[in-house]
Design goal:
The chain is an alpha+beta fold and 93 residues long. It is built from one helix and five strands. Strands 3-2-1-4-5 form a five-stranded antiparallel beta sheet. It is elongated, with a radius of gyration of 16 Å.
């Protein structure tokens, strides 16, 4: 498999396990120790894969620019939502 770059978004972190969503919408459950220190829910991760048939290495880094863009899009959606109670409760960003 050729070297590859991917993007994951941290959906949740509970009991040392991070649920991350890949670009295809699949949820992966990873031990938190595999991710950069200080990672938070909502962070976008840049993932690079290098290697060959007998060994691979992943580099996982928080993509601060992509994370900020994602939070900005979420804020804009919430601010553009019609007034009144939200059907699933309060949303705080």
């Amino acid at each position: 498999m050729p070297d590859a770059r991917r993007s994951w978004t941290v959906d949740s972190i509970e009991e040392g396990i991070a649920a991350v969503v890949d670009a295809g919408g699949r949820v992966l459950h990873l031990p938190l120790w595999l991710l950069p220190g200080g990672v938070r829910e909502g962070d976008v991760l840049a993932v690079a894969r290098e290697g060959g048939a007998d060994r691979v290495a992943l580099t996982v880094a928080v993509d601060r620019d992509a994370t900020e863009r994602a939070f900005r899009r979420s804020r804009e959606r919430v601010e553009g939502a019609p007034p009144g109670p939200h059907p699933v409760g309060d949303v705080v960003l």
